[in-house]
Amino acid sequence: MQVCRFSSRIAASAALCAILLCATLHTACAQTAPAAPSVQLTPYTTPDKTAAAGVPSGWKVASGADTVITMTGPQNESINLGRTFVARNGPFQAGQKGPDGADLSMLYSAPLTQKLTMVYQQGAALSGQPQPQITFTSTTPIQVPAILGECGRFVADLTGPAQPAKIMGIFCSFPVDSAGAFKNFIMVAQAPATAAAQAAPIAEAVFSSYKIPQAMLAKKLAPVTAPPPPSTGPGAGMSSTLWGLQQSNIMATCMDEGVIRQYGPRQLPQECGGMAPNP
Q1: What DSSP state is assigned to residue 259?
Q2: Position 49 in a domain
Q3: Residue 167 falls inside a structural domain
Q4: Which of 74, 203, 245, 253 counts the highest number of beta carbons within 10 A?
């Protein structure tokens, strides 16, 4: 499982061509992205075989391990696929990590935009950098089942110690567990404003090529503290281990198909809020 260790600069990656274009034009994003132009990609698999993605011509892979892939472009663009970090439910203090090895503390009830801002603030504080300023220009909720908590797309302007940039992507905050811990998943893109439109089809193609084996994704998204099995209904009588594994596999399916692949209701299984049969 990859737990995000904040660096002096939080790398970013793109989820949607439409989002990138919206960031450039300062308009709201439609929920359905247009078809992406053809982009030539060279297949890349992390050395530990936990993730794969395509690398555009002229781009370089900066790192790849534990389901996370980061790559950089020729115009100071960056794409980061699959960051996950652990938070503890509590007041946020920039530069202070959460208890029990958590990356930070933040209130679970905070809106997604505030949580994302705290992620950037924590990264800056831990690296001794001035606090970044984030101005959101578009936020769009993603309809996900309760097992995934809350997910949304965002577009924002980022200013701080580095060059002003456009950031855009997907952020999910999964349900808080019985011990007050919750995981968060981010896929974001960053590019100078002058390069955002050119980076749009490239980022969308790379994002769409991102793949994590089902078992690794289930482990990545599993709650920090395994949930107890229900006393009645489906799952009753299971051990905590088996119940937790079942729930993690459902989370992995819904995340991959509903958030990363953006399948529509007819393609999504019923356990993810769709109409297709469950796996």
Answers
A1: I
A2: yes
A3: yes
A4: 203
Q: Compute the distance between CA of residue 88 and CA of residue 180 in angstroms, rounded to an integer.
A: 6
User: Residue 267 falls within a domain, yes or no?
Assistant: no
Q: Could you tell me if residue 127 is inside a domain?
A: yes
Exposed e or buried b per residue across 66-79, where buried means at least 16 C-beta atoms within 10 angstroms of its C-beta: bbbbbbbbeeebbb
Record the tokens describing residue 20, joined without a space. Answer: 């990138």
**What tokens appear for 205 in the block?**
């193609």
Residues 59 and 71: beta-carbon distance below 8 Å: yes
Range of the domain at 184: 17-212
DSSP string covering 184-226? EEEEEEEEEGGGHHHHHHHHHHHHHH-B--HHHHHHHHS-SSP
Q: Give the three-class secondary structure for 54.
A: strand
What region does 124 belong to: left with phi over 0, alpha with psi -120 to 50, or beta?
Answer: alpha
Estimate to the nearest angstrom the gap between the alpha carbon of 55 and the chain centroid.
19
Alpha carbon 263 to chain centroid, angstroms: 17
DSSP state of 276: B
Low-confidence ranges of the chain (pLDDT < 70): 1-37, 161-162
H helices, E strands: number in the chain: 5, 10
CB-count exposure of residue 245 (10 Å: 0-12, 13-18, 19+):
middle
Spatial contact of 229 and 243, defined as CB atoms under 8 Å apart = yes
What does the pLDDT look like over 233-269, one tens digit per residue? 777 778 778 888 888 999 999 999 999 888 999 999 9
Cβ atoms of 69 and 78 within 8 Å: the answer is no
**Residue 197 is encoded by which pair of tokens?**
């439109």
Q: Which residue's entry shows tokens 């709201």?
A: 28
In the three-class reduction of DSSP (H, G, I as helix; E, B as strand; rest coil), residue 121 is classed as helix
Distance of alpha carbon 69 from alpha carbon 197, whole angstroms: 22
pTM, two decimals, is: 0.82
Domain count along the chain: 1
